[in-house]
Amino acid sequence: MGTYIAILIVHILLFRYFLEGMTQRNTDLFGGENPTLESKDLFVNALSKWISYVIVGVAIIVVAVPEGLPLAVMISLAYSIYRMLKDNNDVKRLSSCEIMGGADNICSDKTGTLTLN
């Protein structure tokens, strides 16, 4: 979701750049419209603005990803608990799903009781 919003905002900023450039006659799309500046200066100015727009988009992604990460972890753990309950495993804590996910061999007695050591 954050990536889509970042892409949308970058596109809106670029559209606004071109729209303001056309209304104020600042944007030199075809060359030769603004004799006061060289074409190299126009390109550097435009490129610096475009890079700043991309930086804004990256900043939005950097802010949005950590916000959604805990939610994604909780959803995946809840899904793991649901899958373990379907296999008749009683799960008391969410962290136990992470621990049991890395187990290769489980040793128990004849009743199926798991004990420490």
Architecture overview:
There is one protein chain. By secondary structure, the chain is mainly α. It is 67% helix and 0% strand. The chain contains three helices and no strands. Helix 1 runs antiparallel to helix 2. The longest helix has 48 residues. The two termini are 45 Å apart.
Can you describe this structure in just a few lines?
The chain is an all-alpha fold and 117 residues long. The protein is 67% helix and 0% strand. The chain starts with a helix and ends in a 16-residue tail after the last helix.
How many discrete structural domains?
A: 1
Gyration radius (Cα, Å) is 28 Å
The percent range for helix content is 55-70%
Quantity of strands, as a count: 0
Our estimate of the beta-strand percent is: under 5%
**Oligomeric grouping of the chains:** single chain
Draw up the topology in text.
Blueprint: H1 2-24, H2 39-86, H3 95-101
Helix pairs in contact: 1-2
Features:
mainly alpha; 3 helices
